[in-house]
Amino acid sequence: MARPLAAAIERHPHLADECPDGFVRVDMHTHTMFSGDSTTTFDEVAEAVTEAGIDVLCVTDHNAVEGAKRLTDALRDVCRVIIGEEVRTHTGEIIGLFLTEKISYGARADATAAQIREQGGIVYVPHPFDPMRKNLTEASLVEIVDAGLVDAIEAFNSKTSLQSLNARAAQFGRDNNVVLGAGSDAHVPHAIGAAYMQMPDFDGPQDFLAQLARGTVVGHHWDKARPWSARIVPSIVD
């Protein structure tokens, strides 16, 4: 992956640091135009990923996997794509990674986690204590952690403005022996790479989880509004 451009380093200064040999930068939480609250096109994703030096992009659109599936091929020469989905449960959101099919939304948190596991996927809890991010309720989080249904927890979400909430998530993960993760939660192109995991390279979901445990959380807060412009976004059917 080429080094970040000056514009990306200005937005995200940590991108100026070299990634150790054998390590990759993984943004574990991003959105495209296939999410109802994002208008980021595939061309914009490709440009942003290249600029930010992201090696692996987890595409986690809201209740949709079609965009991630299409980007797997569209970004083949730019970065690797992990097919994910940010799923609304009856008590908040859960992310599934390494999916093959869409997860149904609106179910109980434990049932949603079980659906993800049935696909051989990884259960990742985003922004666990941030009420502005449609977080999973604490009672529901504790319930599925105690049931052994959580593989990783988002210890740094770049859209979370109160860093105490990210710190709380990280501490919760350590206290409960849950692997820590990080993602930009990017809904606009320039946010991609604002937070990521710097971790040893991996092969498949279980190795991903093992190497994630050896990774380092990198990132900073980024929640700037996208400048207005006239846009035409293709009709999305998933």
TrEMBL record:
UniProt cross-references to SUPFAM superfamilies, sorted A to Z: PHP domain-like
Cross-referenced Pfam families: PHP, PHP_C
Protein name (Swiss-Prot/TrEMBL): Unannotated protein
Organism: freshwater metagenome
Ranges for domain Polymerase/histidinol phosphatase N-terminal: 26-91
Entries under SMART domains matching the protein: POLIIIAc (SM00481)
Molecular function via GO: 5'-3' DNA exonuclease activity; 5'-3' RNA exonuclease activity
